[in-house]
Design goal:
The structure is a homodimer. Chain A is α/β, with parallel strands linked by helices. Helix content of chain A is 42%, strand content 27%.
Chain lengths: 242, 242
């Protein structure tokens, strides 16, 4: 892990960009140390495009005493193009624009290779981040790409609580993985999310094996999570990580 | 409204029992006045049986600055027996013990006459309570018998926010009423509630016409609402009533 830039956003928040091998990432740390770490679920549109939303979440988390970090997904942002992923996205766009049902095969091609490739990268990032001074366990996960959050919750024992956002396609295989999740979960569902299958989200919530799992469903579309729902998710992480 | 007893539970909480005509009720008021009022959804098992849970909610609400009140349902507790309601409950018990599906006719007979009779009583209680010194608007509703909460949310303009507990049978007619609800709602659903139809609860949540409505689903049975879910419901009421 190599830091590539550093700037202080305000007295309470230091932002550092880094690379982990070829993978770009961002780390935000609060004034208080050691800080527990929240991995921010990866932005499908890339770090640069999603930066304003990411830094807003980093600020909020820092106010609660958390460090936050995020890395770029394979094939996103400035990372090398990934032709198979691009084909899968193009296939999805085509059937959605044609108003056709999105098949399991398309969802599998879109999500499974991404999760298989991203999960080890996130674990490697966790190794590097936890070795930094000022970062101390426990670790939370919070954000999108619910299939990656599910995979990490199963394979990464250092993650002890997760906020998952039910807003993306979920392969059938992930429902099976979900049964093996045991950490406390807080699942956000936008009830009228135009691009999301509500029933699939409810089925996935049902499938999670965790003894403590909470579903918060709110009105509005994909990006319309109300402020009070963000506050509730933050309280969940504070409750489990501090 | 006639007060029948008064005792101070602690420095911050005064408990008074009252009768409104023949209907018994309890009013809890905090030290601070004027206090906004929360109507505690009525206990199907009667005020006396449910007193420990009611007073716990009254204490919590008083700590948040709220007065709370509850009245006995028709046919419950010490109120005169109501043969039709007893028959409906016996019919329900019979089909449930036989493991048969609960028909719409049984649900209608169980719930609709109760709501028709209780709703005007709750409105009369609200008239009396709001005329007391120390009680000031706005008013919230929080608790069980979701069909009564729905009816009150539609017909009683003084109620400005409601916490509803999805844990009882809901007649089809109430789904139509739900579309006319416009106040902010916070719906609690116990995901594994043995006596509750989860899909019906989700359908009812979907039916509510409110622009702000939130569903909080948690693990556990009917009486297993986790502490943090109670806290979240309390925050919802504080956000809307103060």
């Amino acid at each position: 892990m190599r830091f590539t830039s550093e700037r202080r956003l305000d007295e309470a928040l230091l932002e550092r960009t880094f690379t982990l091998g070829e993978i770009p990432g961002i780390l935000w740390t609060p004034a208080s140390a050691p800080a527990p770490l929240i991995l921010l679920g990866p932005p499908p549109l890339g770090l640069h495009t999603m930066y304003p939303r990411l830094v807003a979440r980093a600020r909020r988390s820092a106010a609660d005493g958390f460090a936050t970090a995020v890395i770029e997904l394979p094939g996103s942002g400035d990372r090398p193009r990934w032709p198979a992923a691009e084909r899968a996205r193009a296939d999805l766009r085509r059937v959605m624009e044609a108003g056709e049902p999105v098949s399991d095969a398309i969802i599998d091609a879109l999500v499974l290779p991404l999760v298989d490739r991203a999960a080890p990268e996130w674990r490697a990032a966790l190794d590097a981040l936890l070795s930094l001074p000022g970062i101390g366990g426990p670790v939370g996960y919070s954000g999108g790409v619910i299939s990656l959050g599910t995979r990490l919750a199963v394979v990464e024992p250092r993650i002890s609580a997760a906020v998952l956002f039910a807003g993306s396609f979920v392969p059938r295989a992930v429902f099976e993985e979900a049964r093996r999740v045991t950490i406390p979960l807080h699942v956000l569902l936008q009830w009228d999310d135009e691009g999301n299958d509500r029933q699939a989200a409810l089925d996935l919530f049902d499938a999670f094996g965790s003894e403590e799992k909470t579903l918060h469903a709110n009105m509005g579309g994909h990006t319309g999570v109300p402020q009070f729902a963000g506050d509730a998710a933050a309280r969940f992480l504070t409750r489990h990580l501090t």
